[in-house]
Amino acid sequence: MRANRWFTPWLLVLPALVWLVGFSLWPSINTVRLSFTNASPLGGVSQWVGLRNFETLLADPQVWEALLNSVVYMAVCLPLLTILPLLIAVLVQQKLPGIAFFRTAYYTPVIASAVVVGLIWTWILDDRGVVNEIVKALGGAGIPFLTDRWLLLVSAISLTVWKGLGYYMIIFLAALGNVGKDLHEAAAIDGAGAVRRFWSVTVPGVRGTMTLVGILVCVSALRVFSELYILTNGTGGPGGQDNSLVMLIQQYARGFTGNLGYASALSLLLFVVTLVPMLALARMNSKADK
Amino acid sequence: MTDTTTTTEPVIGGARGAAAPAPDVTGATGGGRASRPPRGRRRAAWGVMSTRERVIRYALLVVVLFITIGPFLWQLSTSLKGAGEDIYTANPSFIPAEPTFENYLKVAAAIPVWRYIGNSLLVAAIDVFGNIVFATLAGFALARLQWRFRKAVLGLFLATLVLPGEATIISQFVTVKDLGLADNLVGVALPGMIAALNVLLMFNAFRQIPEEIDQAAVMDGANAMQRLRYISLPAVQGTIAVIAIFSFIGAWDDFLWPLIVLQSPENLTLTVGLQYLQGTFATDQRMIAAGTMIAFIPIAVIFAVLQRFFFKGVEEGGVKG
C-alpha cells in the first residue's frame, strides 16, 4: 500500500495511545511506586515507607482470609462455569423456532448490573425471602444465607455462576460453530449416543475454548467485588470474613482510615495472584496440544 | 468500567460465528438415549429431529429460562405489590393482587433517582462516544495503514489486556484526583473512554476487509481518510454496534469505580445510589425492588431492541481468516 503522510497513522492512533499510557501503563507503574508509600485518599504529603506495606500485608489475617475466599470461589466456579454454559450452548445451538428468544433471555443476567442482580438475590435469600419462607413452610429451619460466613460465600458464588452462564454460553456458541458436523455424523453412524458424542466429539472440539473460558472464570473469580459487597451490604460479612481482595482494596481507598499505599500493595498482590491461573491453564493447554 | 465489551472476547480468540447448526447434539438430554438400537437412528434421517427430542429440548429450554429470568420477574412482581399485600409468604403469587406504582414513587421521594439516571446517562454517553470514535480511528490505523512501529503499538494494546482493571484502580483514582476530577462524573467516565479491548476489536474487524479493495482505492487516488470513510467504515458497522452496546452497558452497570471516585450524594450514579437505598431502607423490600427495576428496565429494553445487532456482530467478528 502506498505511503500516507507519515504522521497520519500517528494522528489516528494518538488519542487511544494517550489513554493507554495514561490509564493503563502509567497506573501500573504508579501502583508499584505507591505501594512503597503511605499515600492517603484525602491527599497531603505521602512518605516513603519502604517494604512496610508488604510486611503488614503478609501479617494481615484479613488478607489471608480473602485469599482463602478467592481460592474457594475459584475452585467452585471453575468446573461449574466451564461445563454448564457449554451444555446450554449445545442446547441453544440448534436452530429451533423461538431459539433467538431463549438465547437473548439467557443473556439477560449478563447485561444487568451486579448491583441489580445482587439486590435481587439479597431479597430471594433474605431471612424472610421466598426461599426461606418455602423452607419454613416445609417444616425446615431458616437458612442464614446472608449472615453465615460460609453460606454467604456460597450465595455469592451461586450469584456469580448464575450471572456467568449466558456470558460463557455465547463464547461456547461461537466455538461450537467450528466443531465439524461430519464428525458428529460419523460418530453417530458408529453407534455413539448423544452423551458419548458430547464427550468425544464436542468437548475435544472446543477444548481450546474451554481453556480460555477456564482462565476467564478464574481471573474473574479472583476479581470478585460487587456480589460480595451487595450481599454483605458493604460489610464483608460477619467480622469481615467474607472480604475479597478487591473489597479490601476498596475499603482502603476511602476516608480517614484509608491508605492508598496499602491498597496499592494489595493491588500488586491481586495482580500476582491472577497471573497464576493464567499461566497454569495456558501451560496445561500447550501440554495437551503436544 | 473494565467490563465494557468483554463479551466479545471470543472474537479475538478467533472463534467462528455460531451460524452452522450441528444437529442432534443432545449432550444435555441425559443418558437414556445412548443405548438406543441402530434401527431407531436409521428410521429418522440425519438432522431431522424426532418429536420426542423436540419436546425434551423445549422442556430443557424452559427450565433454563425459568432459572435465568425467574429472579427478574420475581423482583418485578415484588416491586408492583401494594403495601397491603403479604410479600413474606411461602406460596407467593407472581401476579400482584393489588398492582401499584406507588413503590416507584417512593423511590423517587427517597433518593434523587432522576438525577442519578441523568448522571449514569452522562457517563455512559461519554464512554460510548469515546470508544466508538477513537477505537475506530486507532483500529483503522493499526489494521489498514502501513507505518513504522505499527506492530509495536499493536503489541502494547494487547499487553494491557493482561492487567486486571481492579489492580490499577487505586492509581487510576490517584491520577483522576491529580487531574482535579475526584467526586466528578467526568472523572468517572474518563478512564473508560477508550478501552484497549475495543481498539483491538476494531483492528480485528478492519483486518477482515480484503486488501485488494484498498489497493484499488489507492490507485484511484483515495487518501487514508477517504478509504476509512467510504470503504472500511461500512464494512465494520456490526462491530461498532457491539462496541456501542457494551460501552453503554459497561458504564451504566459499573459499580466499583464510581463507588471509589464519587463522594457527594448528588453526584452518584444510579448503581451507587441504589446501594445507598439498600443501606437506608433495608426493611422496605418493595421499594428496593422498584429501585432495581428502575436500573434494570432501561438496559433490558435497549438490549432487547438491539440484540440482533449484538448476535450478528458476534458472528461477524468471528468469521475471519
Overview in brief:
The complex is a heterodimer of chains A (290) and B (321). Helices cover 72% and strands 0% of the residues of chain A. Chain A has 13 helices and no strands.
Q: What are the key terms here?
A:
heterodimer; A: 290 residues; mainly alpha; MetI-like fold; globular; B: 321 residues; disordered N terminus
Fold blueprint:
The complex is a heterodimer of chains A (290) and B (321).
Chain A: H1 8-34, H2 52-58, H3 61-93, H4 99-111, H5 114-124, H6 130-137, H7 149-176, H8 181-189, H9 194-205, H10 207-222, H11 226-231, H12 245-252, H13 260-289
Chain B: H1 9-13, H2 38-43, H3 51-79, H4 102-110, H5 113-144, H6 150-159, H7 169-178, H8 185-189, H9 196-207, H10 211-219, H11 224-235, H12 237-253, H13 256-261, H14 270-280, H15 285-318
User: Radius of gyration of chain A over alpha carbons?
Assistant: 23 Å
Low-confidence spans of chain B: pLDDT under 50, at least 5 residues?
A: 1-45
Q: For this structure, what is the CATH class of the domain at 107-318 in chain B?
A: Mainly Alpha
Residue share in helices of chain A? over 70%
Class per helix and strand makeup of chain A: mainly alpha
Instruction: Briefly note the CATH topology name of the domain at 107-318 in chain B.
Output: MetI-like fold
Q: How many H/I helices of chain B?
A: 15
Count of separate DSSP helical elements of chain A: 13
Percentage of residues in helical conformation of chain B: 55-70%
Give a short account of the largest sheet of chain A. none
